[in-house]
């Protein structure tokens, strides 16, 4: 007798998609290297699914996939409406007693299965997922879960042609195409989700699709503290720097939470200042209380015209009377020069760069392709280093450092990995001095201000103020002097 592996339920929740109730389970299976993400539709019985499969077969026989793939967006809407009528007729034929609500639900189910992205649509609707990955038709679809990290799903795409079909659908909706001559596609969905697709034989195991989901429910300072990403005292220190217009650079490896931290830092911006954000892809979600103008780059069309670069937007933003400038990522020398010019003319700047620690940040910024002269780095006041432990999936603030007048970093707080806490390792040599110079606060007043900020942050955590707009309201009241925290 063969022993069955132990299966332990790790997590369970439901998603409602057009009245289709989808149950999500995360299950740990003893002999598997990662848990499994299991999708099941609970309000459609197995018998109904069998009949729906028959309707699907009857419907598929009428489909011309080549016509669909070559269609423009408007034509697809016409095809969808036409097929909706046909499916509705087939459902009435097989389920003559169904009410309108159930009919609508079954129509939506069949349309998404055949004209949409099938069960990938379910994954796109799960707010707990950050990444959806199709590697080829041999493997199950993978997802990156906010809470549980990488998971295998029980969803499979059974042919390479189907994966290619999905990539074509995604590209067509935004005016891009993926072909044998152009086998790479980088696209942004209208929802803000970022999609990358590759075709075989460029990806040697098969066709791939990688979807990085746009955070509809973005990270906030309260969530970061609750999740253990950083401590209350570290959050108060960053708040103090942001409130007093010190520029901050956020760094870390891929997936370490740089953009999330950039979003969190924006929680501390005052409502009476104009904020311009510049991104390749819209990822930031700032509180509604803020005076915020988001700008986004644009790729050139197939003729090479109409492109808008980050440098174009940076130069333009300086003509928009910004008080604060947020830049998704510094990549090139000219961008860095414009940012430094902005800092030297009185603008506070917040941006990200790829580097694993504060020393690497200095090396990255002072060498090609960014190439900033080291003494000029002192215009940046603070470095916040993010880190993700790939074994556990935990994201943490690894270091908070100030930049000295000579351009070297001075690490103030560093993660004690063993105890999972940020330890103070050095006293401030420049940041506190700057605050004294520009605000007139004494060291005693600065210490008192930090304690007040910690008190407010703890109150927000205790009262579950996690929504980005709710956090924005609290900050607005604070800056207006109307926040009363007991």
Description:
This protein is α/β, with parallel strands linked by helices. The protein has a domain at 221-479: Rossmann fold, CATH 3.40.50. It is built from 15 helices and 18 strands. The strands form two sheets. It has a nine-stranded mixed beta sheet. A nine-stranded mixed beta sheet has the order 12-11-13-14-10-15-16-17-18, with helices on both faces. The longest helix is centred in the first third of the chain and has 22 residues, at 73-94. It is globular, with a radius of gyration of 26 Å. The N and C termini lie far apart (64 Å). The model has no long low-confidence stretch (mean pLDDT 88).
Helix content: 25-40%
Strand content of the residues, in percent? 15-25%
- State the name of the first-level CATH class of the domain at 221-479: Alpha Beta
Q: What form results from the Cα inertia axes? A: globular
Q: What is the end-to-end distance?
A: 64 Å
How many H/I helices? 15
Adjacency order of strands in the biggest sheet: 1-2-3-6-5-4-9-8-7
At the fourth CATH level, what is the homologous superfamily of the domain at 221-479? P-loop containing nucleotide triphosphate hydrolases
Which architecture of the domain at 221-479 would the CATH scheme give at its second level? Answer: 3-Layer(aba) Sandwich
Helical/strand content category: alpha/beta
Q: How would a crystallographer describe the biggest sheet?
A: 9 strands, mixed
Question: In total, how many beta strands?
Answer: 18
CATH fold type of the domain at 221-479: Rossmann fold
> Taking all residues together, what is the mean pLDDT?
88
Any idea what the radius of gyration is? 26 Å
Uncertain residue segments? none
